[in-house]
Hints:
- This protein has 218 residues and is an alpha/beta fold.
- 38% of the residues lie in helices and 12% in strands.
- The radius of gyration is 16 Å and the shape is globular.
Amino acid sequence: MKTIQSLNKKIASCKKCPRLSVYIKEVAKNKVRRFKDQKYYGKPLSGFGDVNAKLLIVGLAPAAHGGTRTGRMFTGDSSGDWLFKVMHKYKFASIPTSQTINDGLTLYNAYITAAVRCAPPQNKPTREEMETCFDFLQQEKEILKNVTVVLCLGKIGYDTACKLYGVKIEKFGHNKLFSYDGFKILTSYHPSRQNTQTGRLTWTQWSKVFAKAKKLTK
């Protein structure tokens, strides 16, 4: 059985998608002004968290100046601000923020991953890139044997989870729960600025999803 450590090492060295490999290198080299003095990680990102977790959270991809900079998913960006604040509220996370990879954040009964491991231009991976990256998710699934609830952040996260578990894709919406033999899929709008700043996703709506996830994973 492959260990999570060996899988993560394999992910970090992946260069199977030329467009994405070039893009994250460019991002790491041509930094935005507010982070110009920081060294960017600039590699594909592995998932992270509790390998014995019942809750698996599936996002889209790392952020160009969040995870690609810090070396950890949802770390150093506005989506992560929302994610770890609510995860801390429901005791899935040790602290309510995630700004650097060495900030002491620990996840409890939760593991975070994504459909694609490199930040894609305009946050839009191609179908081929998602297909190429899917193998990493399958290997994670084999290692994360205790998962009973899959929380999908956004439509791509949901479609990817359905493919991973071999179930029919239903109509996506916020805070929907689908039950299958041995596990459940829970859906949410992604906590991107596009959703949170426009009011498409409110804090109350977001919090209700994690309240449900907490009950389901007790």
